[in-house]
Amino acid sequence: MTSANELVVPPLDDILSTLRVVSIPMKVKFRGVTYRESALIKGPAGWGEFAPFLEYQPAEASAWLKGALEAAWQGFPEPKRHEIPLNATVPAVGAHEVERVLSRYEGSIREVKVKVAEKGQTLSDDCARVAKVRELLPDAGIKVDANMGWDLPQAVESLTHLSEYDLLYAEQPVATIEGLAQVRAELREKGNSLLIAADESVRKAEDPLKVAQAKAADVLIIKAAPLGGIRSALRIVEKSGLPCVISSALETSIGISAGAALAASLPELPFGCGLGTVSLLDGDVTENSLVARDGMLPVRTVEPSQELLTRFSASDARVRWWRERIEHNYAHLVINN
Ligand SMILES: [Mg+2]
């Protein structure tokens, strides 16, 4: 039985016949790579992006393929909103550099994510950076992201101090789901109700429920592709019962349009999303990139330009690699779907 809400997996030949593989230089090295490779496919509903990180195996990456097929063959669900609030991001710079970082954002800033717990830095560096953001933007929402950089005692101590700056939430203070649950419980015992968000702990479809069941977080940071696309992500999110923030996997504007469509479909969207990442790439597949104005990202589809697809075309060897990758993931998807 299939319904409008279920993806009918198209024949492999149809998928491969439209395949374009691009390799786009990164402005800043990320996950050890200086080029972002991505496979783009076109179906009757539009373009989909298949760009799991290179080391991901079919058990994980086939969910990303399902997401790309949804975009290309099924299209996006009816949106509940037409623009998505984004957050600005302040990396682990010195407090004196915060103003310069924020000045790069056009228009008003409603929400800022501040990186904390950087190796080689101290809690007073973090406090000074967050204090500077609070001073410059007294009305903005501020959240901190530790990217798993603390152990349990450091997390509790740091968040106790950082809470004084009135934070929306703290993202992934420690590495594991159990650790997050402990940090959250210890803060609550001290009468601190700071919300905890899980990001790195949510990588696969089963993770949101694990986080919710362990009472490890109050907020989930999710990406559309690893959860198998928008409709699948919506089902998983609903089961978890937690509010969500949508982030990107460093895709081109095509993948970002799927992230925006997921954010547009959520029943509630209480926080700014992390979908402003096209600017980290030194190129895109469209002249009309999906970027924010005044902190708001439009919800729309993206059509790539042939000229840019050609300009950023990957080598023949890399195209073959991605073809084979799609074949393997397709087999995995068909068997497990
Ligand atoms: Mg994060």
From TrEMBL:
Binding site for Mg(2+): 145, 171, 199
InterPro entries given in the database record: Enolase-like_C_sf, Enolase_C-like, Mandelate_racemase_C, OSB_synthase_MenC1
Needed cofactors: a divalent metal cation
Domain Mandelate racemase/muconate lactonizing enzyme C-terminal: 98-190
Enzyme class: lyase
Keywords: Lyase, Magnesium, Menaquinone biosynthesis, Metal-binding
CDD domains, sorted: OSBS (cd03320)
UniProt-listed GO biological process terms: menaquinone biosynthetic process
Alphabetized GO MF terms: magnesium ion binding; O-succinylbenzoate synthase activity
Enzyme Commission (EC) number: 4.2.1.113
Biochemical pathway: Quinol/quinone metabolism; menaquinone biosynthesis; Quinol/quinone metabolism; 1,4-dihydroxy-2-naphthoate biosynthesis; 1,4-dihydroxy-2-naphthoate from chorismate: step 4/7
Top-level taxon of origin: Bacteria
Reactions accelerated catalytically: (1R,6R)-6-hydroxy-2-succinyl-cyclohexa-2,4-diene-1-carboxylate = 2-succinylbenzoate + H2O
Function noted in UniProt: Converts 2-succinyl-6-hydroxy-2,4-cyclohexadiene-1-carboxylate (SHCHC) to 2-succinylbenzoate (OSB).
UniProt record similarity statement: Belongs to the mandelate racemase/muconate lactonizing enzyme family. MenC type 1 subfamily.
NCBIfam families for the chain: PRK02901.1 (NF002782)
Name this polypeptide is given: o-succinylbenzoate synthase
Species of origin: Rothia terrae
